[in-house]
Specification:
Blueprint lengths: L7 E3 H5 L6 H20 L2 E2 L8 E4 L4 E3 L6 E2 L18 H4 L6 H17 L9 H10 L14 H10 L11 H7 L2
Antiparallel strand pairs: 1-3, 2-5, 3-4
Length: 180
């Protein structure tokens, strides 16, 4: 397996658990959503998007890396197969159900929540507890953790984190269009 070398740092190192300024998050969220739309247009799911896999290169451009767990949307074997990082999986992915583009959008909501607030949306000790938390409760609203969040961005993050995939944005392109 060969991957392009990207000189830069992943978001997990750039912010190191500190909340990012509002304009910085939007400046990251928009290109990440646009970048995620490209594989989605080719029927490819990332399935393991997280801050450690989103790089800011030396010029400040955003790059999504590591498509090692990616699969085509029409590939069979998605149901009952759980692959990825549990803390960044959509509820349907954690439960071993069908994974779709909207599963990646859920993960995008988790990523934006974490970059915005400096904290994960859900904290759990095990995948089972994480699944239970996601099915039984909603995450805190980001504005309860940080003050300067644009209400449109907060609504978009919370829409991405809907348990029901049909209530999430329809696509990564729609998500990028919803960012101010």
């Amino acid at each position: 397996i060969v991957m392009e070398y990207v000189e830069g740092r992943p978001l997990s190192q750039v912010f190191k658990g500190r909340p990012a300024p509002s304009d910085r998050v939007v400046g990251i969220g928009y290109p990440v959503a646009r970048a995620l739309s490209r594989p989605h247009q080719k029927s490819l799911l990332h399935r393991d998007l997280k801050p450690a896999k989103v790089m800011l290169d030396g010029r400040g451009h955003v790059r999504i890396t590591d498509f090692g767990l990616a699969r085509l949307t029409d590939e069979k074997g998605g149901t009952g197969v759980t692959a990825g990082t549990p803390a960044y999986m959509a509820p349907e992915q954690l439960a071993g159900r069908e994974v779709t583009q909207r599963s990646d959008l859920y993960t995008m909501g988790l990523l934006l929540f974490e970059v915005f607030t400096g904290k994960p949306a859900f904290q759990a000790e095990s995948p089972a507890e994480l699944l239970r938390l996601r099915e039984d409760s909603a995450p805190s609203t980001p504005s309860k953790i940080v003050e300067d969040i644009d209400p449109m961005v907060e609504r978009l993050i919370l829409q991405c984190l809907e348990e029901d995939p049909s209530r999430r944005p329809s696509s990564a392109l729609a998500m990028s269009a919803a960012l101010p």
